What we know:
six-stranded antiparallel sheet; single chain; alpha+beta
Amino acid sequence: MATIYHYTSGAGICGILSKDRIWATSFLFRNDYSELTYGLTQFCKEILRISRVQGREFDVLPEALAHRLQTPLVNAAHPFSVSFCKHADERLDRNGLLSQWRAYGADGGYAIGFDEDSLIERSCDYAKGFMNNEKTSTVGWYIPDNCSYDAYEAPEDVEKNDEILDFIHSLLTTDIEKRDDINENRFDLLKEATRVALFFKHQDFFEEREFRIAYGLLKRNVHADLDFIENRGSIFPHINLFGEAGISDLVRRIVIGPHIDAERRARSLELLLRCRGLNGIDVSISDTPLRK
């Protein structure tokens, strides 16, 4: 029974355990889309290669094309995602990933271990019901998948899709700010670009063995399961991944990151678990020698 880990802060773990839910966050309302840049650039490299093979070469660098495509793609697909890590061995199960602990700096962090198969099955069930509900049919796509750290090669249906090259030509020859057809009607055409942007990462991040669950909103209507949080004065929308089914019963273990107060954090966490009636969850403290 594999375990998959979600790294979060103290505020994050309190929210997940107290509210019995986990959220996918919106890319559209982030200050930058840098996390999408690498994968989208790989997609654009392949598109430009295909254009050369077909004798329709575009005078643009892949990085420039990715930059031009990024904003309209995010607007059309409106992706939400949540990330997990797959640990490579038992040592990492006990101690967590150093790269993740470093990301939380002096505040430390927590790694929540979920039963992988149950988590994916429950998220799939909820997504199907969510997408087929008239009140919440704004969700148009759902992808649970491992991130890839390999070189991207376009599948055959992309290689033979002349519409993609037509769209790229139109994108490069039209004022992007005046376009009104880069919307949900274009998502079927651009769904491969969205998948690559979300799930292809640089090989230097392979240690994380990241797994993502991603949703996309194809309409801008407000729907029942959008939630909102405030962060540094800005308001950010989230999607609750599991609805009323909850998430707490899928937690198998929690690793407390390196911190001077790790022992006290363990006692507080165990009290929180008892108060929420969450029994049988293994709580441990990372032995990673990280000084803060």
